[in-house]
């Protein structure tokens, strides 16, 4: 992976793992403090108490997501 590349990985039954130099803003345009992390996990189950970040709640809510990218 190149230094400036952003990579988003769908975790099976879990969050979107975002790695790389990203800026995350809310619907008002305010930036989230990512604390200098080079990787963040974004909730896609809707159950996190720390949205938009994953807090592990997907493990207890029955969230199922195992889709894979279509093969060419
Ligand atoms: S994906 Fe982890 S709490 Fe929603």
Question: What are its keywords?
Answer:
3-stranded antiparallel sheet; 72 residues; binds FE2/S2 (inorganic) cluster; mainly beta; Ribosomal Protein L9, domain 1
Write up what this structure looks like.
There is one protein chain. The chain contains no helices and 3 strands. The protein is mostly beta strands. The protein has a single domain, classed as Ribosomal Protein L9, domain 1 (3-Layer(aba) Sandwich), CATH 3.40.5. It is globular and about 30 Å long. Bound molecules: FE2/S2 (inorganic) cluster.
CATH domain class name: Alpha Beta
The percent range for strand residues is: 15-25%
Low-confidence stretches: none
At CATH level 2, the architecture is 3-Layer(aba) Sandwich
CATH topology: Ribosomal Protein L9, domain 1
**What distance separates the N and C termini?**
21 Å
Instruction: Assign a percent range to the helix content.
Output: under 10%
How many DSSP-defined strands? 3
Topology:
Elements: E1 7-10, E2 16-19, E3 39-42
Antiparallel strand pairs: 1-2, 2-3
Précis, in short:
With 72 residues, the protein is mainly beta. 0% of the residues lie in helices and 17% in strands.
